[in-house]
Specification:
alpha/beta, Rossmann fold, 9 helices, 7 strands, 15% strand, globular
């Protein structure tokens, strides 16, 4: 029960990493608000999980409507009187239009960056107004793409690199209020978004260059969120924690070297 009595808000939380975070936070004793655009789906998930004794509630958030980042936090404050942890899990891209510098259209580039960065900036800015009284923790779900440049999805990578920087800015500027801010950078994770949007060829190439030759489980990313949400990390802020199975950590020749060793 590491999160007992904590009020936690998680964006984009009806599937994948977000849902794994919701479940684990609730299991650790928190009251968890699922911020979602599809309220019907979110309510069904919450009802099912609450049958297990969890405390999960639903609040509306639509990434395309910036004002909902403010209204979702206001609703949590209205209901609970505080917010202890904000987990900015929302992130978007479209591999069909988010290509390389040569072929990505400027409007698509800016739109993806705007959605991803503003989701963190607006929500964090508003949450800090309420966290100033009792302190709190802001956790940004970034991506390994923010520190390892890719040959495609340039807007996504730029937005995640910006979120990494923004994390450190928030950490430094809000520390005097006992507000911490850290980022988690997942590598390739076994979610519906990955399975539906990335080709098997791309996934195979990615895993060839990962020392731990598998995707992460969403729960493995959620475990890091629990640490940053709990008092165990009370002296930890401004950290950019990559959970990537070693991808990008070793020589770019890694895959060829390993495969040649096995051929001997």
């Amino acid at each position: 029960m590491r999160l007992k009595n904590k009020i936690i808000l998680v964006t984009a939380s009806t599937r994948g990493i977000g849902l794994a975070i919701v479940k684990l936070c609730a299991k650790e004793g928190a009251t968890v608000y699922m911020a979602a655009r599809n309220l019907e789906q979110a309510n069904l998930i919450a009802e099912e999980l609450n049958c297990n004794g969890y405390s999960i509630k639903v609040v509306y958030n639509d990434a395309n409507k910036q004002e909902t980042y403010i209204s979702m936090i206001d609703e949590v404050i209205k209901n609970e009187g505080k917010i202890d942890v904000l987990i900015n899990n929302f992130g978007t891209s479209n591999p069909k239009i988010d290509l390389n510098i040569e072929y990505t259209k400027y409007d698509d580039f800016i739109n993806i960056i705007n959605l991803n960065i503003s989701s963190v900036f607006i929500a964090s800015q508003h949450a800090i107004k309420y966290m100033k009284k009792n302190g709190g923790s802001i956790i940004n779900i970034s991506s390994i793409s923010g520190i390892v440049p890719d040959i495609s999805q340039i807007a996504y990578g730029v937005s995640k690199a910006s979120i990494n920087y923004l994390t450190k800015e928030i950490a430094g500027q809000a520390a005097s209020y006992n507000i911490r801010c850290n980022a988690i950078l997942p590598g390739m994770t076994a979610t519906d978004a990955v399975n539906n949007n990335l080709t098997s060829v791309f996934k195979d190439y990615f895993l060839r260059h990962s020392p731990i030759k598998r995707m992460a489980f969403p729960e493995e990313i959620a475990n890091a969120a629990i640490y940053f949400a709990s008092d165990e990390s009370a002296f930890t802020t401004g950290q950019i924690l990559a959970i990537h199975g070693g991808f990008g950590m070793v020589t770019p020749l890694y895959a060829d070297i390993i495969e040649n060793q096995y051929k001997r």
